[in-house]
Write a structure and sequence with these properties.
alpha+beta; 157 residues; eight-stranded antiparallel beta sheet
């Protein structure tokens, strides 16, 4: 069992804040434990949020919080996260895949050469994706209507 899996096994007692809340404006936030691994460094546990905003209905933002309170956000398609929960997904600078072991995790790899890897509790990622699926269709319709109105104003003006 890896250090990451041992930490995940401990759940909330190991530092996870596995609580979800609705965000402002109808968005959604799921907080969880994350294991951050940077190239050449040992993985370390930090807290993270998965955030969804209705104004960007195709995206998820993974916000990593350092112990000093610094936040580092990464934004990518929430459907990529959804696909990565069941199998490898993504090409280029963001890839997602399930990680099996003592604890079910999902790994999100970022950056040139995929030099940053973040492992999240899969149950929290599933909860986030489930919420977003329910919200995104209505948000896409609303955002699409607003974009259509803007385009009509541009064309007629």
């Amino acid at each position: 069992m890896t250090a990451m899996e041992r930490g995940a096994e401990g759940g909330a007692g190991a530092g996870a804040r596995a609580a979800g809340t609705a965000g402002a404006g109808g968005g959604s936030v799921v907080s969880t434990a994350a294991w951050l691994e940077l190239a050449g460094q040992e993985p370390r546990m930090i807290s993270a949020d998965l955030r969804y905003r209705p104004s960007d209905c195709l995206a998820a933002t993974l916000v990593l919080r350092a112990p000093d309170g610094t936040e580092v956000p990464w934004t990518f398609g929430w459907e990529l996260l959804a696909r990565g929960l069941t199998g490898p997904a993504g090409e280029g600078d963001v890839r997602v895949r399930p990680v099996r072991g003592a604890a079910a995790l999902v790994e999100v790899a970022f950056g040139p050469g995929l030099s940053a890897r973040v492992r999240l509790l899969a149950r929290d990622a599933f909860r986030f994706v489930d919420r977003v699926r329910r919200l995104a269709a209505a948000d896409a319709t609303r955002v699409g209507a607003a974009l259509d109105a803007e385009l009509a104003a541009i064309v007629s003006g």
